[in-house]
Amino acid sequence: MQKRESAKNPGSAATPAKRGRPVGSTAGSAAASAAAAAAADSAAPAFLFGPTLQVPISFADQNNKRIVLALQSGLKSELTWALNTLSLLSFKEKDDLRRDATPLAKIPGLLDALLQVIDDWRDIAIPREYKRSSRLRSVGENSAVTGFGNEYELTSSVDIPSHPGSTKSWVTEWWFEEDGLFNLDQEGRSEKQQCAVATSNIIRNFSFMPENETIMAQNRHCLETLFQSIEDHYMQDEELITNALETLVNLSPLIDLRIFSSSKPSHIKIKEKDAVHGIIKMLESSIKSWHCAAAELLGRLIINPDNEPFLLSSAAQIYKRLVDLLGANAADSQAAAVGALYNLVEVNIDCRLKLGSERWAVDRLLKLVKTPHPVPEVCRKAVLVLESLVSEPQNRGHLAHHETSFAEILMSEGGRYSDTFARILYELNSRPNNKVVTARGVWGM
Fold it and tell me: Where are ARM repeat segments found (predicted)?
């Protein structure tokens, strides 16, 4: 349990690396990062350096109100400008001088305005039969024409009666209906979807900045939108889902699932069980980037003891899927599964018993060590998971069948994990209450 205690004390260890963040980007490795960057710059040919855009230090501070108003306007030109601007501001190069600028997530109304763009696209993407009967306009409510799709062609075309005998033009009647603002022709829908994907990428970039993490993790609207996006994965763009997952992984050390039942204002009705259900759906996905991110997210969320009751209620599904990933051919999937199990077995006795009784769990963990996995850290964690399992007397019967394999690894030349497997064999044979394997304690004689 020392690992879980140290995780609660941020000063005792370095910040976990972000998904997609370059090596050395965490606070604890600034010197190593600078050295690596200098070496890379000196070794890289000059023709590999492309053009860069210099952003003024005070640009965001001087234009923050304009950016928020542009996002809220719903106008295509304004929205495009705001998203392009934020895409630049949310990406910091190593020589960027905007270190003292206002954190983007702290700009009043900016995060909510970005989230609203994704929320509005989700409402359009939902099939009509699943929609609410009425919906208030929240983006561009004062504009008859927003610029998306073929609006100008429609409004400038010859009016067509909506039905025989009617004097009201079809264009006017259609445009001022609830769905008219969003112009649900194919081109307009595609443009709205592109805006939502670009917005999700900006929010993902926000999550890489340490100064934004706490604000985003404590914003209920932000978490609701992210979890709702992965919940609706069957109707959303793949890139949007990937961005939502990676954002959640980056924020996961600070996420407390109890926020969904708190007194903070709610924009989307999501409960803790809905959030866990969405993560499990991603874990069961056949898309590697999704199930790897979901496994990593579970492994980080479980470190917070306040999240345990919500995650452990679905422990059976989680363990079964993680063991399946251990047997996958992809090294990334195996690494993500081992990382999640490494944290899960530290929670309580029940977790270790359930994993120990899971079919193929011990076999596949041993296979990762014997093959071995190309990443040594994954092998080390797999060995430590086995050691945690053998500490429970009820699991020793399952592990006793692999005693020969343990002994082979122990006696192998240059065994990197000999000490750990020696302790595992000691646990299997030296405990007085172990009645299952007492007759097998003759290995090595």
Answer: 360-396
